[in-house]
Automatic annotation (TrEMBL), chain A:
This is GPI transamidase component PIG-S. Belongs to the PIGS family. It holds the Pfam family PIG-S. Its main location: endoplasmic reticulum. It comes from Polyplosphaeria fusca. The lineage of its organism: Eukaryota, Fungi, Dikarya, Ascomycota, Pezizomycotina. Keywords: Endoplasmic reticulum, Glycoprotein, GPI-anchor biosynthesis, Membrane, Transmembrane, Transmembrane helix. Residues 1-27 are annotated as: Disordered. GO terms for biological process: attachment of GPI anchor to protein; GPI anchor biosynthetic process. GO terms for cellular component: GPI-anchor transamidase complex.
Automatic annotation (TrEMBL), chain B:
InterPro entries: PIG-T. This is GPI transamidase component GPI16. Coiled coil: none annotated. The lineage of its organism: Eukaryota, Fungi, Dikarya, Ascomycota, Pezizomycotina. Keywords: Membrane, Signal, Transmembrane, Transmembrane helix. The chain crosses the membrane at residues 525-547. GO terms for cellular component: GPI-anchor transamidase complex. It comes from the Eukaryota.
Length: 560, 586
């Protein structure tokens, strides 16, 4: 061991010319004590690294429950569920022999499959046993819905084949208030057993395709906009349809299990101060809401607000000589609702509020119309509808009667339908409802899946946010509901699929908006270090210095 | 004596307003001594029970009704108050104190619930939603600020299932009532401050008043036939300082009059050309509504009845000889009631209406009815550990008064009930007849103390008890911790003599400011740094001892001088070598 190695000299003696003199004097250190010192330093470091660091890590760690991140991302990318919409269409042919009916069914199915370009949405024909005796077509019409409907509620549409002798055939007619298509035909239009096509089959197939065209377009639009994975295999929508569908979907409210409808009467003066809203709602709105009960629930309330002035941001109405009316500019309609002063606060409880505003203008500014088109009502996307009711008589009545409210109620009902996203066609109302059911189920699945994806991205990107167990549970429940919903869709049970999708959506929202996940984000690591620095600094400096010195003394020795 | 009668009549008149039609409003003006004016606004709207259940609202505001339905609230009382009612000079309180609250915000409600937990969760829903509606911090009414009074409050409405209802009461004495609370209050009115007497209500004037209280009371009222309505009463009572309100808005700083215009007390010894003791003028000051409130009334609210008792929406209570001018372009009707001491006006629709009273030398005045009790409450003692509360209740009347005294104290103010003493000035009997006491639980519940007491005629009752001040946790202090903490006012309800109607007679003391021991808020960091330094010092010493090589002085050959001498010698040697080196270089 060279003598210089024992250099334990204090800095005071480290001037170059004195070093040899002084070191020569210090006795060489024994190997034993040298190794003892090294052991001491090493054991300090061992405690710091093996005990201190893990403790620090553990005590300052944030609890993050295990999330199935890969599965969540897969859901968001659409890899887990490819929504398909197999629609069951029942054919009732009470007058046809079994064999002929089967043959007709097959030929029609072939024709349909040839027509269909959208693989996810396909129509499957099936034959039902009709309990009715043949040849009483009149009775069939009167008892529709009761007699011919089979118990299976997942049948989207029933086709009734009715043989007739007169009139143009084959012709078909859609029942406006039942999911039933009546097809009239003559016997010679039935496909002969050898042939694979017939005018009747082709006509039914075309009719069905027409009926479900809008639904297909809607679903295609939905698939193409919500996830990139589906877009590739979609049939292309024409740009015109695309913009129209886009317009409709931006108008419609987000799906919710409960909607609150608020009907408000606003007037800038003190009249009218009352309206017969109870009976008007009972008559014009209740039947509509009842038919929607399978999809959503509704609460209805109403209010009367007097002295409701325009907001100062819009231009006052101007008198138009040509129209003989006071007019509002179209660009001012968006500011018509004076949100600051009109009490249109959302209703309490879950679910969005849909507002319907009936505005009765001042006597001196009546009639009040929209300048560009002379209309008096408009729809505020995702918010509600407005109608200006210009009183018929010169004197504004104190009370608006039920009859005076009728036009307003009709247009509010129309506005409600488009706010709920009900498609414009086909003519049969139950069919439109069931279309809405399928579209809603699909959109809920997509939105819950994308929420899952967003949550997965969030937990990956923000390392410092905690993930409590409740979030993990909600995520598991969401995935279970999504899977069930997807399976039910495949089976064609749309009501069940909608319910599961609804649950999935609410669980997903619960997981994403978990409150305790946010708090820790604002408690950064720098803060923790700053608090412990007064301890860590003075402790670390001697430890590091001692380690460095020992290393210095060891390394040159090895080299030599 | 004539004026005394007039006041009794007036109360009967207010009561009859609250009955018939669906919407009624009334403003009562009453000049008070020392150029003060009491303006009492009252609005009442009714909604039938069936419309309420079906959520078809006409006069009842939809926002409030939905809150009530959502929280299962059957009867609601909400108060926003500011200032102190000077009972010594202003006499009895308006509405017998039944429409006023303690300083800050006070809320009590009867909730429909199966059990206490459900009632409390509904109460939290109610406070949270009302907080949003009125822009007030009502959401801070939590379990520590909530009590369930036993004797102090009685329901005003008709409830078929009173046994299922739970009464909860919460106060926020720290809340400062301001314009943001008035705006939602006005939005609840059908005429919205655009017409009728509510057009006078303006935040600048209302919150500049010496005393003001806003109240909302919702209660069900059932006829004998079983038909029920839900009645909402909104009240704004304020005492305006006429001189203060009249100052112009562009020059609001009060300046003394030139000495020539001041009426001086010449009997004072120091009275001279430049010194003056001002005399209180005996003349009643002049004022008009537009001067006091900044604007006239914008005509009648068309929803009120056009004839009958309720059509008289503005009333002024003055001696018959006082001149009152009504300035308006529209038709109005003046009627004199109660031996001419009450002048009521039916307002014109669509035309401004203003009342002006010229300055007048009065020979007679109206006698104010003295209150049944005077009450004052103070904190005594010094130091940061203990204090005591003293409440002085004086009965000026010639009959005994039976009353209930309610205290709701924050948990960090811990009373010692064994020190509770109640003494009556001229009797040795214990005035306390009943006691209800629910002790506080730290951070979970406040103290709830209710006492039923009997105070004999013309005597003074003194109630004292000691309390201990708790030390709070670091995070429990509010941002302005050194200001102190507010303790809610005590509520006194008179049992006998009570009132004829179901509203009751109430008196509230002022709120108290309780100074608590306040720490230095940088303390935790100081503690961390100090502890860390001590720990680092210890660690450094031990570590050095362990890793340093220690060589005895005698073990080093040649190092003859050890210790301090050696060190100094070494230093000197080094310095010399350095200096020598420098010299060589130069």
């Amino acid at each position: 061991m060279p003598p210089s190695r024992g250099a334990d000299a204090s800095p005071a003696f480290s001037t170059p010319d004195q070093v040899p003199k002084m070191t020569a004097k210090t006795p060489p250190e024994s190997t034993e004590s040298l190794w003892l010192r090294r052991c001491v330093i090493m054991s300090f470091w061992a405690v710091a690294i093996c005990l201190g660091l893990p403790m620090w890590w553990k005590t300052t760690a944030i609890y993050r429950a295990e999330l199935p991140l890969q599965a969540m991302t897969d859901w968001a990318d659409g890899k887990m569920c490819k929504p398909v919409f197999p629609l069951r269409i029942a054919i009732e042919a009470p007058t046809l022999p079994e064999q002929d009916a089967q043959h007709l069914l097959q030929t029609t199915q072939h024709a349909l499959d040839d027509l269909n370009e959208f693989s996810a949405h396909h129509l499957r024909l099936m034959l039902t046993e009709s309990p009715l005796t043949p040849n009483i077509s009149q009775q069939v019409v009167t008892h529709h819905g009761l007699g011919t409907r089979s118990n299976d509620e997942d049948i989207a549409l029933s086709i009734r084949l009715i043989p007739v002798e007169t009139g143009a055939t084959p012709r078909s007619q859609l029942q406006p208030y039942a999911p039933t298509l009546d097809v009239y035909y003559t016997h010679n239009q039935l496909p002969p057993p050898s042939s694979t096509s017939s005018p009747l089959a082709t006509s039914i197939a075309h009719e069905l395709d027409k009926i479900f065209a809008e639904e297909q377009a809607l679903l295609a639009y939905l698939l193409s906009t919500t996830s990139g994975a589906h877009a590739a295999k979609m049939k292309s929508l024409s740009p015109g349809t695309f913009t129209e569908l886009e317009r409709q979907s931006t108008r419609a409210l987000k799906y919710a299990p409960t909607y609150h409808l608020t009907f408000s009467l606003f007037t800038p003066t003190s009249v009218p101060s009352a309206w017969e809203i109870e009976s008007a709602l009972q008559r014009y709105l209740s039947p509509l809401l009842e038919s929607f009960s399978a999809i959503s629930n509704f609460t209805v309330d109403s209010q009367v607000q007097l002295y409701a002035g325009f907001s100062p941001s819009i231009r006052a109405p101007e008198y138009d000589e040509a129209m003989q009316a006071w007019t509002l500019r179209k660009e001012d309609l968006s500011g018509f609702i004076n949100a600051a002063e009109w009490p249109l606060s959302p209703s309490i409880g879950h679910g969005p509020t849909v507002n319907f505003v009936l505005y009765v203008p001042d006597q001196s500014q009546s009639p009040l119309l929209v300048k560009e088109n002379g209309g008096n009502s408009w729809l505020v996307p995702q918010w509600g509808g407005v109608l200006i009711l210009n009183p018929a008589s010169s004197q504004t009545p104190t009370t608006l009667t039920k009859d005076a409210l009728a036009p307003a109620m009709h247009s509010f009902a129309d506005q409600l339908l488009s706010l709920l996203g009900l498609p414009q066609s086909p003519a049969s109302f139950p069919l439109r409802l069931s279309t809405l059911k399928r579209v809603r189920a699909a959109s809920l699945i997509f939105s819950a899946s994308s929420t899952m994806g967003a949550l997965a991205r969030l937990t990956r990107q923000l390392e410092s946010i905690p993930v409590p167990d409740t979030v993990a549970r909600s995520v598991d429940s969401t995935m279970a509901h999504l899977q069930q919903s997807c399976d039910l869709l495949r089976d064609g049970r749309f009501q069940g699929a909608l319910e599961h999708a609804r649950n999935a959506e609410s669980e997903a929202e619960k997981a994403f908006f978990e409150r305790s996940m946010v708090g820790q984000v604002y408690f950064p690591d720098e803060h923790k270090v700053a608090v412990y620095l007064p301890l860590l600094g003075p402790v670390a400096v001697p430890l590091i210095m001692a380690a460095l010195k020992e290393l210095k003394s060891v390394l040159p020795g090895r080299r030599r | 004596m004539l004026s005394f009668r007039s006041l009794i009549f007036f109360h009967a008149l207010v009561a009859c307003v609250l009955g018939s039609s669906d919407y009624a409003e009334r403003l009562l003006l009453r000049p008070l001594p020392q150029s003060a004016l009491l303006a009492s606004f009252n609005f009442r709207s009714n909604e039938s029970f069936t419309s309420f259940e079906q959520q078809n609202f006409r006069y009842f505001p939809r926002s409030l009704a939905q809150i009530l339905q959502h929280a299962g609230t059957k009867e609601l009382h909400l108060r926003f108050s500011l200032g102190r009612w000077d009972a010594e000079s202003w006499g009895e309180r308006p509405h017998n104190g039944a429409r006023e609250g303690g300083t800050g915000v006070e809320l009590w409600a009867w909730l429909d619930a199966e059990n206490e937990q459900e009632a409390f969760s509904r109460w939290l829903t109610l406070t949270n939603t009302l907080s949003g509606l009125f822009c007030a911090s009502l959401n801070f009414i939590d379990a520590t600020k909530t009590i369930r009074p036993v004797m102090s409050f009685q329901p005003e409405g008709d409830h078929p299932n009173l046994s299922q209802l739970h009464l909860l009461h919460g106060t926020l004495p720290h809340e400062v009532v301001c314009t943001e609370n008035l705006t939602p209050f006005l939005k609840l009115l059908p005429c919205k401050g655009k017409a009728g007497i509510s057009s006078l209500l303006d935040g600048h004037k209302l919150f500049d008043a010496s005393w003001q209280t806003m109240s909302i009371d919702v209660r069900p009222v059932c006829e004998a036939s079983g038909e029920c309505i839900l009645e909402m009463e909104q009240t704004v009572d304020m005492v305006l300082d006429i001189d203060r309100s009249k100052r112009p808005r562009d020059n609001p700083i009060p300046r003394p009059l030139p000495i020539e215009e001041i009426e001086c007390d010449t009997s004072k010894g120091y009275n001279a050309a430049d010194t003056c003791y001002p005399l209180h003028g005996s003349a009643e000051p002049d004022f008009s509504l537009s001067q006091l409130f900044g604007r006239p009334i914008k005509g009648a609210c068309p929803l009120t009845d056009s004839d009958g008792e309720n059509a008289n929406t503005v009333c002024i209570n003055t001696p018959p000889e006082r001149t009152v001018h009504a300035n308006t372009t529209g038709p109005y009707v003046e009627s004199r009631l109660v031996a001419d001491t009450l002048r009521c006006y039916k307002l014109p629709t669509g035309a401004d209406f203003d009342l002006s009273l010229p300055s007048q030398q009065m020979t007679t005045g109206l006698m104010l009815q003295p209150p049944s009790l005077f009450a004052a409450r103070h904190i005594n003692g010094h130091g940061q550990e203990r204090g005591s509360i003293q409440t002085t209740i004086r009965n000026p009347t010639s009959s005994a008064v039976d009353f209930i005294y309610l205290e709701s104290l924050p948990w960090f103010m811990k009373p010692y009930i064994h020190t509770l003493r109640a003494r009556v000035s001229n009797s040795l009997e214990n005035p306390i007849t009943e006691t209800f006491y629910k002790p506080a639980v730290d951070r979970h519940r406040g103290t709830h103390l209710e006492l039923r007491m009997l105070i004999p005629a013309s005597s003074t009752l003194t109630l004292t008890y000691d309390f201990e001040k708790a030390i709070l946790r670091y995070t429990e202090y509010p941002p302005d911790a050194n200001r102190g903490f507010d303790a809610a006012p005590a509520v006194i309800r008179l049992v006998s003599p009570g009132s004829a109607d179901r509203k009751g007679v109430y008196i509230r003391t002022t709120s108290l400011l309780l100074p608590l021991p306040t720490p230095d808020f940088s303390m935790p960091y100081n503690v961390i740094i100090l502890t860390s330094t001590v720990m680092a010092l210890g660690f450094g010493n031990i570590f050095n001892l362990l890793v340093r090589r220690i060589v005895g002085a005698d073990e080093v050959p040649g190092a003859g001088t050890g210790g301090i001498r050696g060190v100094i010698k070494g230093k000197v040697e080094r310095l010399r070598a350095l200096l020598g080196g420098v010299k060589k270089n130069t």
